[in-house]
Known about the structure:
Oligomer: single chain
Largest sheet: 7 strands, mixed
Amino acid sequence: MSKTPAKGKQTNTLFSYFQKTPKSETKNTGKSGTDEVLSPRRSPNDRSKTPSAGKKTSPSIKATEANEFSEGDLVWAKLEGFPFWPSLVCNHPTDKVHCKGGKTKQVHVQFFDSPPSRAWIKERYVKPFKGSNDESFQKGGQFYTLNTQVNKGVKEADEALKIDKKDRLSLVVDLLPSSDEEEEENEEENMDLDPTIFDTEMSDEDISKENHSSKAEDSKETSPRKRKSMSPQKPRRKAAKEAVLKNKRRRIMVKSESGDEDSEDDFKPVSSEDDDDDDSASELDENEISDVEPESEPESPVKEPRKRKAPGRGTPASNKKSIAVLDSGKKPAFSPSVSNNTKTKLSLFSAPENAGDDSGQKDASSYFHVSLDFLQPDKLRDNTRKLKSDPDYNPRTLYVPESFLNKQTPAMRQWWEIKTKHFDTVLFFKVGKFYELYHMDAVVGVREVGLIFMKGDFAHSGFPEIAYNRYADALVQKGYKVGRVEQTETPEMVTERCKNMARSANKYDKVVKREVCQISTQGTRTYSHLDGDIGDHTSKYILAFCAKVGQFEDDRHLSRFRTLVAHYTPTQILYERGKTSPNTMQLINANLLSALKEGLTPGSEFWESSKTLKTLAEEAYFKSEDGEITWPEAIKLMLSESDTLGLTASDAYDLAVRSLGAIVWYLQYCLLDEELLSMKKFETYMPVDVSEHRAQGAQSGAQAIKQRHMVLDGVTMSNLDVVWNSTTQSTEGTLLERLSYCSTAFGKRLFHQWLCSPLCQKQAIYDRLDAVGDLLEAPSVMEESVTILKKMPDLERLLSRIHAIGSSGRRKNHPDTRAILYEEVTYSKRKIEDFLATIEGFKLAMTLTAACSGAATNFKSKLLKQTVCVQGAEPDNADARFPDIDDDLKFFESSFDHKKAKKEGVIVPSKGVDKDYDQAIADIKDVEGRLQTYLDKQKSVLNCKNLVYWGTAKNRYQIEVPETALKNIPHQYELMSSKKGAKRFRTSDIEEMLAELTDAEDRKDTCLKDIMRRIFHNFDLKHRKWTAVVECLSVLDVLISLATYSRGGEGDLCRPEFVMPEEGAQPFLEIREGRHPCVSRTFEGGDFIPNDTIIGTKDDQDEDGDSSYSEGQVVLVTGPNMGGKSTLMRQVGLITIMAQMGCYVPAQKCRLTPIDRIFTRLGASDRIMAGESTFYVELSETSSILQHATKHSLVLMDELGRGTATYDGTAIACAVVKELSKTVGCRSLFSTHYHSLVGEFQLDRNVRLGHMACMVENENEEDPSQETITFLYKFVKGACPKSYGFNAARLAHLPEEVIQSAVKKSREFEQSVYSCKMFRNLWCSSSAQEIQKAF
Length: 1335
């Protein structure tokens, strides 16, 4: 193939294909033997090679000699704009190869999709598929996704992974498109920009610079409808079809100098959105320009219908040169010319020289914004011109020189002005029907979510409006802030505004207004109708805090703050810039790595308490319809009693109100304040270990526990893997995963809260256990309830959506009320669907209560009865909490035609729903009746029965009078119009009635425009009722979840028994045959070994034990390495959590006094980000235990002191055990390898000895490494003589010579210690008898 000559090289623009004077030959025709023409039927993304005409080279692609993928391999494959998709490597149906060579290697795959589809994928986007259990597919992994279609494909790929590679090829399906399918594809069009949007915004010069509206305009002028990228090579056609196409114009491509063989996909996997959503915004490629018919006018190319290509003809890549020539021996009938104006606009789509090269897509360093001086990292300034090095630098803003802004086109200046206020935000800038991203935002869009750079010197990408949810959600999940910028004017509104200006309008006035309508972050996503699906069930918290001695005191390790973020893990944190202590920032950075952290300026952004209360009082958040302020109860408690105006916070809550002020400011900044604050959902957080203490006063250790909930601090939550596994960064292996069988999203959220806050009061615990027992005795009720609950949507979040829509009338100044949305009908349908789903959900709730009503009379649990019994239904259930919502549901169910509204996206209210609408309808009927009566009267006056009203809109209600009756026309008749044979008149009476009719119709239209909001508002007025229903359903769902585990858990499960201390019992714990709830089997595959754990009470099964010794509160646990000590301790902690949560536990018997707090010191880890060593972390956790533990606590300490020298560690461990035994007196499990502790405490009556049993074979004192250790995983009394560390070394495959050297050194150490001990005893002996005893 001949190369394109460099001389006379044309710019690669669209108009380079149109010539005024066509040439009969070109330099390239001599060798080829045939001429080339520009075909109108060429896919813009098709980049397969086309051989020169002189050579009969097959278009099939050569496979690479060495490719890491073979037929039948399972892989992850990624198309641009799509996530990684599970796929099967297979041969192309026509080329019969599965890989391509060249500069960019490619692999042919079939996607596990419905229906199946295939594509050529660049090799670097193909990764091996290792199954759904591989860490790459887990949360945080490269292929992790919430996309249900991808997850469905993964399940299919998992099944394929189980069969042989050859057998997998039977899964390949024939994907050759039929003629009908291809004709359908030819009819599809890409979404274009609305050509009217920018026509009135700016001049031609502005358009050419911004690359906006000309795309749509020129697309209409020079291009037929766009096509989506299809297969790089069309399937083989029949011979007859080839003969028909043989004499048609054909295109021959000259080989690209780059040698690139890139091709796009054959068929893309079906996305959850419409296919059009996947296209890049309004991009036009020169290869899409159609040829024209000879009869066309020179300036008006006629669009030619797309036809299927003949087989074997390649499609050019976008970076190849197309040389337009004639078929041999023929002259063109016509070659179209292009006007200069059109050329100017077409030049916008000039591709860079590397347009088809993949490197051009990825390299963002050459774009315009990179060269801007004020964007250089060392020169960045905020809008107050502070450098990044300044402590008060505000990273949310950017300084842009005025001189630079003055050089920008109107719309681009608009973008920069918004960017100056939202520099750290990715702006989705609305242009017509598309959201577009510019400069640095476009780079983020391409890099993070697979958008495609559009042509031009500045970075530019985009997507259709309907795809907002997909791309916004993807960026937010990756930690970005997303700003939605909407057009708030139409071109007509711009024209009207310019006309009314006092001065003459300039070019900046003529651009449509755009405003930021919402900023979405991980902590501020509200799942509005624009966001589509509600998302997962997890709660997203935003935390604002300020620190000084105030609301609750914390220790130097911030234990209570750690507990707060463990229970309510925030996704976003707001703090006072420059006023937060380094210790606190270290904790946040070390423990909340993925949370978005933002510093707010004290005073102006992080408000003082007085400013916070003043703002809340002035805004409409808490105001009723009559303007009265109704403070939420939680905030009312924070107000100072001395200030009658309610504008001063009490001293005890000053910091809390200041933190609330930071939240309010940030919600205003994100334009979400009215939507969220008006719900009045406020609760006061107090540390769980002091809340009840403050309310009840300090209690002595001998008294009963007065607090309601067990305290699980952040360290304990992490060490016991209660809700999150820090090792796998998922919920895998956690107690939450094991116990949660909830069917609803709101039930799962409540279950998380219950699990983090187990109960301490015996009566409350027994009530939950009774509920579990009641459900176990009524399996049919439980199964029916589960069936109903699984059908329910996320009612809790749907109520928030309805509230946001219903209260939007109060947000008259919110820019969203002015936004021009092109998918308004789609969004209206979503709103109606959400509302109808909510109604159906509450109807199901009433069905559930009916299903439980029969069995409720036999329920022992008061909580369960309150949950399922409807208020007022039965006099015996006076405590019922489930509200009666039957009448409310009937009203809203009949308020409008649901099917019609769901189909059309418009609500027409039924009679009696809206008074204003009903009055307008009545007035319309009344006026229409009077007009008809007036017409009948005029028939009598004119003695003519043929009088009729004529006209529409403003011309309606003209009386049409035939010529035969004109002689009787009264003088008050006013001639309006006429026709042959009749004239039309109006009277003053008709004018008056028409004015009344117009007014009534206007009132009707106004009501219809606002009727959806008004119905939603009426629904929201009963928010307390709906919330009460959701709370009852949540409790029932959680109780059913506990019952499901209690019924189906592996092994024995028992109901725990609680004994209160005031009944004469000291704190104790007795677990018989207990098992770890999350580990049903060991890694070796055998059954899990159950164990007894007795603390603080006599062991009845220990016949020869010392009764006083057996009641020790501290258990010293020894045993071999890997013998199961840590598992035992975690097992005890989790069983007690389950018991006090109200769940059956995995044991034959469980008796205990309630535990007020669990402390753990397990594992070994440092906190590098906080500058804390492993040993320092150990001692910090130990310090917290000794400071906060009471005699009702449970302490689990594993191998304290191993992070320092042996003697130091032994001494510290000994001192801690003594403190727990003598001073604290709480139930404790203390494991250690310091065997000297055994001798130290073997006579202590408050310390019991226990060890994990093992069996030693080939016991060898000379060479312990040759001993064979069998772990029995059984906890028995007494001490273990050794830790058998050499066995662990052998299991870890340490080199034999290293082990032998260690054995030798161990004997030397032991001998040295023994010698020192003997010498000390000898030195201290004062008589021959003592010396003899010492030896």
